[in-house]
């Protein structure tokens, strides 16, 4: 995987499933992350070829529950993001998917309570003794797998602490580091601190993927200039209009929404995840209380949704 000068679709729970990743790539995303999947779930899965859809599915053994779905078309750009607090379990889980994806990313930045209570995500960055666990997870994956390994973090309390952490992460041999320019306590509306991402870029040799507050195509260059980062990663800007990745300019959001639903039907996406994503688009651009929003809320099937 090459992480220089790339536009990256960020990992987003319930959003970053196969249809959304393909949509973002069609508009110009070079690298597309899947939603974070916890190692506990992945270790229960087996790999199945889905001959009807032409996909590779990772399904909970003995059930029809698809935990991760991918296809050959995205093999060279899809990143599997894992939530984990344990090196051995992370390795067992990674071995199940690593041959079918372009890279594996470990999420060290999730501030949500389920991650923190499981000792995952940002919890791993919260205490110096736990940072040892982060490094162990990354080193274990690097030594035992022939796959590109990366890591995504948030900022720590001081820029100096984040730089120190980033340097230690770099020493594990990861290929790139994604940095969300917010601290655990920051709200999504607080501005991302591009200057603190710049401090990290200046201290590392590996590519840094800068993340936070890119909402227009023009922001990608601004962010690269301000941070010195090799690549930029976009979450909400893509969720609200995936054509943000297009150099030709954004398409109307409702055309993008329609294409997203079409792809969800084609790839048999989980309807709950489709509804969540469509609702997020509507909330941002319109209002859930209007007729369309109400209809989406009520829909149980793809027939209703379409
Ligand atoms: C996220 N984010 C996130 N981060 C991560 O590492 N793994 C994940 O699964 C998720 N899930 C997720 C879902 C949704 C709906 C949103 C909006 C965000 C955080 C995301 O990747 C990113 O770091 C932040 O949203 C900041 O980037 P933007 O939104 O300013 O471009």
Automatic annotation (TrEMBL):
| A GO cellular-component term linked to this record | cytoplasm
Enzyme Commission no? 1.3.1.-
Active site (UniProt): 110
Q: Which domain of life is it from?
A: Eukaryota
Positions of FMN binding: 11-13, 81, 152, 180, 235-236
**Listed GO molecular functions?**
flavin adenine dinucleotide binding; tRNA dihydrouridine synthase activity
Residues forming the DUS-like FMN-binding domain are 9-279
InterPro entries assigned: Aldolase_TIM (IPR013785), DUS-like_FMN-bd (IPR035587), DUS_fam (IPR001269), tRNA-DUS-like (IPR052582), tRNA_hU_synthase_CS (IPR018517)
Q: Which cofactor does it need?
A: FMN
Q: Which PANTHER family match?
A: TRNA-DIHYDROURIDINE(20) SYNTHASE [NAD(P)+]-LIKE
According to its UniProt record, which protein family does this protein belong to?
Belongs to the dus family.
- Protein's UniProt name: tRNA-dihydrouridine synthase
What organism does this protein naturally occur in? Zingiber officinale (Ginger)
Q: What is the lineage of its organism?
A: Eukaryota, Viridiplantae, Streptophyta, Embryophyta, Tracheophyta
């Amino acid at each position: 995987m090459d992480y220089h000068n790339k536009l990256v679709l960020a990992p987003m729970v319930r959003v970053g499933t196969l249809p959304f990743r393909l949509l973002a790539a069609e508009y110009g995303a070079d690298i597309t992350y899947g939603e974070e999947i916890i190692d506990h779930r992945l270790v229960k899965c087996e790999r199945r070829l889905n001959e009807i859809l032409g996909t590779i599915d990772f399904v909970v053994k003995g059930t029809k529950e698809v935990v991760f779905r991918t296809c050959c078309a995205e093999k060279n750009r899809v990143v599997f993001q894992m939530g984990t607090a344990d090196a051995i379990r992370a390795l067992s889980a990674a071995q199940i998917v690593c041959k079918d994806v372009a890279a594996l990313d470990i999420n060290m930045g999730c501030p949500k309570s389920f991650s923190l209570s499981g000792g995952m995500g940002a919890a791993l960055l919260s205490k110096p003794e736990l940072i040892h666990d982060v490094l162990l997870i990354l080193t274990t994956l690097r030594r035992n797998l022939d796959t590109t390994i990366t890591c995504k973090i948030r900022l720590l309390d001081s820029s100096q602490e984040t730089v120190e952490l980033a340097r230690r992460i770099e020493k594990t041999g990861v290929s790139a580091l994604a940095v969300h320019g917010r601290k655990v306590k920051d709200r999504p509306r607080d501005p991302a601190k591009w200057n603190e991402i710049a401090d990290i870029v200046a201290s590392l040799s590996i590519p840094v993927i800068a993340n936070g507050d890119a909402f227009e195509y023009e922001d990608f260059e601004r962010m690269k200039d301000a941070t010195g980062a090799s690549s930029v990663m976009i979450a909400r800007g893509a969720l609200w209009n995936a054509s943000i990745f297009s150099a030709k300019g954004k398409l109307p959001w409702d055309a993008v929404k329609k294409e997203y639903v079409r792809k969800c039907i084609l790839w048999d996406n989980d309807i709950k995840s489709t509804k969540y994503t469509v609702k997020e688009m509507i909330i941002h651009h319109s209002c859930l209380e209007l007729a369309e929003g109400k209809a989406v809320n009520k829909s149980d099937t793809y027939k209703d949704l379409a």
